[in-house]
Amino acid sequence: MSNETQYQPSPWEWVSTQVETYERTGGAEGNTLMDTGMPIVIITTIGAKTGAIRKTPLMRVEHHGEYALVASMGGAPKHPVWYFNLLAHPESVRIQDGPEPFDVSIREAVGEEKATWWERSVAAYPPYADYQKKTERQIPVFIATRRS
After folding, report:
1. Which of 52, 135, 144, 148 is most buried (most C-beta within 10 Å)?
2. What is the share, in percent, of the chain residues with pLDDT greater than 70?
3. Is 92 domain-assigned?
4. Into how many domains does the chain fold?
C-alpha cells in the first residue's frame, strides 16, 4: 500500500473505535466482536471508489495459517463494501491478527473449497448459518494466505 494513500475510518463509530483500539493495543484489546467473546481480525483494503485505506473488523476464521473472509453483512441482500474493495484491489490486502499486520493474497472460494471453509466459518461464528438463510444471495467467502 502506498504511503500517499490516506486512511479513512469507517463512518460506523463502533467499527472505527474497535479498529483504533485493536491497533493501539496490538490486538490485546478490541479483539472480540462486541460482548460475544468471539475473536476478530482487522482487514485492510483499498477503497474501490475512493482509493482510501479502509479497515474492517471481521470474524477470525483461521485454519493452518489461512483465513476466511466471509462477506455476510449480517445476511443483508447486498454485499458489504469491503467485498468490492477486495475485487478492485486484491493485491493490496492486509490482515492483522495480533500485534503486526501482514500482506495476504486472496482468492474467492468455490465448490468444495467453499463448502469446507463455510463449515469452518459457521463453526467459528454460528450466526453465519442464519445469515445465509436470511438472504437470497450466496454469501461469498474469500481465502487469505500470508504472502512471503
Report:
1. 144
2. 97
3. yes
4. 1
8 occurs within a structural domain: no
Residue 5's pLDDT band (boundaries 50, 70, 90)? confident
Supply the pLDDT for residue 42.
98
Which three three-digit cell numbers place residue 54?
479502509
Identity of residue 47: G
Local structure of 143: helix, strand or coil: strand
Q: How far is CA 50 from the centre of its chain?
A: 19
Determine, yes or no, domain membership for 97. yes
Give me the CATH number covering residue 44: 2.30.110.10
Residue range of the domain that includes 30: 13-146
Q: Which grid cell sits at 106?
A: 486472496
For the question of whether the overall pTM of this predicted structure is more than 0.85, the answer is yes
Distance of alpha carbon 14 from the chain centroid: 15
Quote the CA–CA distance of 89 and 63 in Å, as a whole number.
24
137 near 77, Cβ under 8 Å? yes
Question: Is 37 a member of any domain?
Answer: yes
Task: Please report, for the chain, how many H helices and E strands are present, in that order.
Answer: 4, 7
| pLDDT level of residue 93 (50, 70, 90 thresholds) | very high
What is d(CA 107, CA 133) in angstroms, rounded to the nearest whole number?
A: 24
